[in-house]
Design goal:
The chain is mainly α. The protein is built from 20 helices and five strands. A three-stranded antiparallel beta sheet has the order 1-2-3. The longest helix is centred in the C-terminal third of the chain and has 29 residues.
Length: 481
């Protein structure tokens, strides 16, 4: 009986993917204490605002605030406060980056939201974030508010809803992908990806839709879908629009829309109309949101003091600012700092030096292997013209570089103080979508193997790295070593 179940799971990769992703994610959800995924307090507050229908907070409720940025530097920003129950504000403010053991889950479960009690302001610098990236979290918080549940339950339920969303979208991507499904699963099972799959940030809806859009595009090179090209283009456009609204740098994905391959579609007169609309829709929706943000004074240049100062320099000395950005980027890359962010938890420590070393160094090795290894068969590759492969792969490289450069620029403008010689605030989670893009190349593998061997390597390696990461998280809290 068990053998039949195992075989059925292996025959349906999407079921295996959903099982692994949900199991790994649920383990992290339980192991990582409340408010301790990156920026969780601010993201939870933003999701709470959206659950109340407050897309933009009144400009009358804003004040000058400071928060600790990279290297403990105080960064100024204008924070707007939403009117929330005092119990929710107390829960949000209970997080202390220097003292992670001050939240008692048991005691917090006894604290009701009590919306009719005293209200106070809860400020966040994330009011510029689009509500699209917080839809699952806002729905979860809305349900808890209906029953006046404890604020900590909002956090856990928001994490759970985000995990469900991530599991569904990545499992669909694996199901649709013709040949790179195990590459996508390997990236989705990186420790940092599992961490983000239970984060209440907008990362899930900025990364998972990119993976699914790539799967639909790549499927068009291996399957005949002449009857469905219109629906496919609409799906791709919507997915990229969602990702862009959740994180603007994903707008680079529109460069891959023209590479959706359909021969017969080219002969239809309305093909180019659909193609142009598919490209323009994400761009127009982002521009509309950006305009609304500016009108309501919640754009990054209005909130963050560094960004505002650099915006002034950009207008007066654009060449100097560009030189500064390129210099800081090169210093970061040459300094080897990028290597330390592959699959690592920068905010976790362990008494055992071996554990961080394992997931800091095995992570990038594992990622490199799954990106350069593949199992494209000759039958698959013969189905595609070499010129089409080259053009598609070139577009993939451009989009990959575009997402990374856009992220670096955003961090340079918002987080990096004027006069710094290296870009600050970089975390590997910002580049997960870029590596999904890199994993969608066709016929460019340096190492070739069978699908079974590749699948087994991904499952065994990712499971080992996950176990080590989970032990590290537990050791961080309970000092088992």
């Amino acid at each position: 009986m068990l053998n039949k179940i195992n075989l059925s799971i292996l025959k349906k990769p999407e079921i295996l993917a959903a099982t692994l992703i949900f199991t790994f994610g649920l383990s992290f959800l339980i192991a990582i204490r409340p408010l301790e995924t990156p920026d969780e307090p601010n993201n939870l507050d933003r999701a709470y605002q959206i659950s109340l229908g407050e897309i933009f907070i009144s400009s009358q409720r804003r004040s000058q605030c400071y928060y600790t940025g990279p290297e403990n530097k105080q960064i100024s920003h204008l924070a707007r406060g939403s009117q929330v129950p005092k119990s929710f504000a107390d829960f949000i403010n209970s997080f202390d980056v220097n003292n992670k053991y001050n939240i008692s889950v048991y005691r917090q479960l006894k604290v009701s939201l009590n919306t009719h009690s005293e209200v106070t302001e809860c400020k966040t610098q994330f009011q510029a974030n689009s509500p699209v990236g917080y839809i699952p979290q806002a729905i979860a918080i809305f349900f808890v508010r209906l029953f006046n549940g404890p604020p900590i339950l909002m956090d856990y339920l928001a994490r759970f809803f985000v995990l469900i969303c991530w599991t569904i979208l990545i499992a669909l991507s694996v199901k649709i992908m013709p040949v790179r499904k195990w590459t996508f699963l390997g990236i989705a099972l990186l420790p940092i990806a599992i961490q983000q799959s239970i984060s209440v940030s907008a990362d899930v809806l900025s990364i998972a839709p990119v993976a699914l859009a790539l799967a639909i595009i790549l499927r068009s090179y291996y399957e005949k879908r002449e009857k469905y090209w219109k629906a496919d283009l609409i799906k791709i456009s919507i997915l990229i629009a969602v990702a862009t609204l959740a994180k603007p740098v994903m707008i680079a994905m529109i460069l891959l829309i023209p590479f959706y391959k359909k021969k017969k579609a080219l002969r239809e007169s309305n093909y180019y109309v659909y193609l142009i609309l598919a490209i323009l829709t994400p761009l127009l929706l982002y521009l509309i949101w950006n305009k609304l943000s500016s009108l309501n004074n919640v754009s990054p240049s209005y909130i963050f003091s560094i960004d505002a100062q650099k915006s002034i320099i950009m207008h007066k000395h654009p060449v100097h600012l560009l030189e500064n950005f390129l210099s800081d980027s090169v210093n970061f890359l040459l300094g080897g700092a990028a290597f330390n962010y592959f699959g690592s938890f920068e905010w976790l420590t362990s008494n055992s030096p071996a554990l961080p070393v394992i997931f800091n160094y095995l992570g990038p090795i594992f990622l490199s292997i799954i990106l350069i290894t593949g199992y494209d068969t000759k039958e698959h590759l013969n189905f595609i013209k070499k010129r089409q492969i080259k053009l598609y792969n070139l577009a993939v490289i451009i989009v990959f570089a575009g997402i990374i450069c856009a992220d670096l620029y955003a961090l340079f403008m918002i987080w990096t103080p004027i006069g710094a010689n290296i870009i600050e605030g970089i975390q590997f989670r910002y580049y997960l979508a870029a590596f999904f893009v890199a994993g969608s190349t066709i016929g460019t593998k340096f190492l070739c193997t069978t699908e079974k061997a590749y699948r087994n390597f991904v499952i065994i390696s990712s499971s080992f790295i996950f176990i080590v990461s989970l032990i590290t998280i537990i050791d961080n809290y309970y000092h088992i070593f």
